[in-house]
Write a structure and sequence with these properties.
Layout lengths: L1 H21 L3 H10 L5 H14 L3 H27 L4 H4 L18 H16 L4 H17 L5 H20 L4
Helix pairs in contact: 3-4, 4-6, 4-8, 6-7, 6-8, 7-8
Amino acid sequence: MNRFVNWVTTNDNRVLMVVNKQWRCKTLDMLLPKITHLGGATFTLSLLFAMVLLFSNDLRIWAIDAFIALTLSFIAVQMIKKASGRKRPYLNLPNVITVENPLKDYSFPSGHSAAAFSIAIVFSLHSPLLAITVLPLAILVSLSRMYLGLHYPTDCLIGACLGVVSSILAVYFIYV
């Protein structure tokens, strides 16, 4: 088991440093700090509330499903964060590039990734054609969290998995 944990940790750090350091360029420096907010509470909640208020058709139902998925993933993320206590990469590793005034709560799992995938998967399940747009955005949100030095790859991967599971629960099991 220790060998597996060491392997995961080594590769987690390695991938993080590639995304955080080697991918650096002006375009990503400009784009990813904006994209990351697509997984934040302000954007996700505002989007879903606006959709519930402004639409009266299937989009309203989809937004309600997405809100349920978002809530489920948020609860899971907060419980796991408190249980894991994993420090953020910029606090653990030297030379990680991060944003001004970075978050100081725990790193594992990524709430932004969970939120982005919660919404993207709900909309993809309801309309597979939307997956072409929303899944790449969710992936970009996850990559942005590593690029900004706020999460390890496993934080983002598990956050995405929580978003997927919460979406499936919201769409297929809540109304049964």
